[in-house]
Specification:
Blueprint (H helix, E strand, L loop, with lengths): L1 E6 L2 E6 L6 H7 L18 E4 L2 E4 L12 E3 L9 H9 L9 H16 L7 H7 L11 H11 L3
Parallel strand pairs: 1-5
Antiparallel strand pairs: 1-2, 3-4, 3-5
The chain binds FE2/S2 (inorganic) cluster (FES) (2 copies).
One FE2/S2 (inorganic) cluster (FES) binds next to loops.
Amino acid sequence: MKINLKINGVWKEVEIDPSDYLLDVLRREGYLSVKKGCDTGTCGACTVLRDGYPILSCATLAATCDGHEITTAEGIADEMEDYAKMLAGEGAEQCGFCSPGLMVMLYALKKEIENGKVKKTKEDIRRYLIGNLCRCTGYAGQERAIFRYLGVE
Ligand code: FES
Ligand code: FES
């Protein structure tokens, strides 16, 4: 079957199998920032935005995204450049496997804070990002970069 996805601002017609998950379709189409960590909906590495809200692409059938807007880390690279520098500055980028999914989630969080839907406190930020796991860093450096980026003392 064919579906239409607006990926990072560009409409594309994509051939899929009805049982395909969005993660596999995006990677097949060349959006390699979308990572397959656990493939069971528990690590957050595959996070993308659908119509501006984060979803786990490993747990979302591509067919349900027909006609929707999908944003991957490639699509927000310019907006997130400052955060990427802060992450590197904190020495928090190790294997980097978790970074694109976390970056997408942080982008969504920033919008939620701006819209007043999430409070800009350390506790609320930690809660929002709790589903993005990292196997390397122990989170301390990532947290410092995230708090700096969001302007949290
Ligand atoms: S690969 Fe989707 S949550 Fe881990
Ligand atoms: S830096 Fe390796 S999983 Fe996060």
